[in-house]
Amino acid sequence: MNRPPPGAGTALLALHYQNDVLHPEGKIRVGLAADSPTRDRLVAAAEALLNRARARAMPIVHVRVAYREDGADIITNAPIFRNVAKIGAVQEGSWGAQFYSSLAPMVDNGREFVVKHSRINAFFGSQLEEILRVLGVSRLLVAGVATHSVVESTVRHAVDMGFEASVAADACSAADPAVHRASLHSMSLIAQILDTEALERSYPLA
Q1: Considering its fold, how many domains does the chain have in total?
Q2: How many CA atoms lie within 13 Å of 5's alpha carbon, on the beta-carbon side?
Q3: What are 119-155's pLDDT values in tens digits?
Q4: What's the CA gap between 120 and 95, in Å, rounded?
């Protein structure tokens, strides 16, 4: 009997791996502090995760957040949005809105897609669901920054939509480690939480 390859039916969601979120000179600090000692470990884990997905031809959807330079498209009903508008973060066309160099999409890979959104949940007002339905996947492997923001919001929405979800814990981060851990614990009720060892068992590097 032919068995499907590891990861068949699964797509990787890589959320907000952008300069303003990850780089030491980035403007957004909800995922990593400017001098965070975890930055190198997070980036290494995210790089390994992307390598796992690419080795198995797993679809990857890179989700970015970006707004107009004048901020006219930023909703200001929540503190996080008001702060983004105030500091001028992730402005379309800016360095800050670009993907972190080592975690950027491979533009010549037909299994990689880029989605832009402008809220917290990556599904809201974006093409994410449409792409996933076209791909025919039923399971999502989710990673990104920040754990308690875009990651948790997206995972909860995905589960309500009927997707099975797993979270690559080591490829996620929050500026406060306690918040990161609490978010993972909260998501464990609805998603599988995978550390590096568990990821290696489920999606070994080729």
Answers
A1: 1
A2: 12
A3: 999 999 999 999 999 999 999 999 999 999 999 999 9
A4: 21
